[in-house]
Amino acid sequence: MLDLVAGATVLPRVGRLPGVDDLDVADLEAVRTLLRGDSVVDWHRLQFDDHAAVDRFLRLCELDPASDDELARLEAVRSDAVDYLNRVYQIPLTDEVAGEVAARDLFLIASRQGPHQRAACVVLKVMHIIYHLAGRQALLRLQVSDDAIFREIERKVVRVVEELRAAGCAVAEFEWSRKPRDSQITKLLAKRSTLAANIYDKLRFRLIVPRYDDLVPTLAVLTRQLIPFNYVVPGESVNLLIDLPSMIATRPALHAAAARMQEQPEPPGRRPRLTLNEFSGKEYRIINFVADLPLRLANLLPPATAAAPQAVPSSDDSHVVFVLTEFQIADKATAVRNESGACSHEAYKARQHEQVRVRLLRDENDPPPGE
């Protein structure tokens, strides 16, 4: 049995699964980012109404707003971002955005129309990258096994799902798996890109909800309690189930909330992924996305070896690491259809293995697979 006490910064427990019409503009922005695989670097405005909303988001990113040390680290990240913008791009920033107001308040300034809104967004975009880069570098330096890291992520995800169940939210199926080494080799042999770094599903969670109408509310809860929307990996989302624009257009409550939501155009040169991958059945339907989940170093290291806070925090230091994690979400009826015929896992593996066999054994005069 997993220890559900260890894990993330404490967030308020899940009260109940909201209905679709209960979602606010922040929920819609987060769900849309998750479904489309957008990058927050392309955003122009945030959607934080008050400090409580900001603090919830900071906790999702494993920054405790009640900790002076961690707020000092946030200030160091802001200072580094301002320095970068001045040195590299000579972007003029007001004193207020550059340092006069608390870094925590930048989220509110970036969410409201005003003279400093754009500058606050610019600084927060760079802060997002610096915080992530430091966590990624900390993971490379970490002398801890993948097994230990994955175990802590499993605890973190299971805790949220157990809270959903405890709150009376029906979960039809929930499981997780780690991709075996043989499966990793097969995947890389089948893909055009054979870089091991491109395997995003070494750790995968599959959540099946009872009804189609439960999908969007469940995604909203995941972005409230587990997945920072800014660390959904851009370009890696596949949404073959939800037509979010049509849902918003046909529900007055959502339409009213969406009226406040900025419309983010698709970045030039990128189109949504229409299939999970080339080996999936044509009728296979799923919501699939990858998130780089933050995890506290203190959960991975013995207390005696955990780094003590520095007197002067540096943005290069990190108390978190980031772990790529894949999620698959579907409703029960869709999941049942996905398990039959050409959509089944057995048929998927057969197509994948045939591709590998062709690539490994083809003669030098044979055309490449797919041509």
Features:
371 residues, 10% strand, 5-stranded mixed β-sheet, 5 strands, alpha+beta, disordered N terminus
Question: What does the model show?
Answer:
The protein is an alpha+beta fold. The chain has one domain. Helices cover 43% and strands 10% of the residues. It contains 13 helices and 5 strands. The protein has a 5-stranded mixed sheet with strand order 1-2-5-4-3. The longest helix has 25 residues, at 117-141. The termini are far apart. Residues 1-8 have low confidence and may be disordered.
Question: Poorly predicted ranges (pLDDT <50, ≥5 residues)?
Answer: 1-8
**What is the string of SSEs from the N terminus onward?**
HHHHHHHEHEHEHHEEHH
| Alpha-carbon distance between the two ends | 50 Å
Shape call: globular
Structural class: alpha+beta
Helicity level: 40-55%
SSE inventory with pairings:
Elements: H1 25-36, H2 51-60, H3 68-89, H4 95-100, H5 106-109, H6 117-141, H7 146-166, E1 173-178, H8 181-190, E2 203-209, H9 215-225, E3 238-239, H10 244-250, H11 252-258, E4 287-296, E5 320-331, H12 332-338, H13 345-361
Parallel strand pairs: 2-5
Antiparallel strand pairs: 1-2, 3-4, 4-5
Helix pairs in contact: 1-9, 3-6, 8-13, 10-11
In brief:
The protein has 371 residues and is α+β, with helices and mostly antiparallel strands. It has helices at residues 25-36, 51-60, 68-89, 95-100, 106-109, 117-141, 146-166, 181-190, 215-225, 244-250, 252-258, 332-338, 345-361, and strands spanning 173-178, 203-209, 238-239, 287-296, 320-331. It has one domain (20-273, 290-332).
